User: Fold this.
Amino acid sequence: MIALSGRETISTLRYPTFTQAALGADVFVRTIEGEEKIKIPAGTQTGTVIRIKGKGMPVLGGRGRGDLYVSASVVTPSTLTREQRKLLEQLALVETRTLRIKAWSTRFATSSAETAKTQ
Assistant:
């Protein structure tokens, strides 16, 4: 989808995939003049906007071009292969362990701070 706002052009990127968004990747986006390679930063979330200078609409009666703004829409797969499912389940285990450690360290830090205040 491409929308226009003055000389600025706004496009929605129907990918990156979950892994591209998490790890970062180079992807191609459609511009007015063809395709342009852009870098998706690691940790990209749905709604993240990436600006591509000078790839928007030409300035009418003037010089130069506007910018192209690409809004990421991260795609979550609706079906998985066995291998993909196994890998995601392993990731879920790692994430669960990490969350438990963070929760424990936060509780420990909070109770230590409260103990220090009462002494």
Q: What stands out?
A: Residues 82-118 form the longest helix (37 residues). The chain has two domains: 2-72, 78-119. Residues 26 and 80 are 23 Å apart (CA to CA).
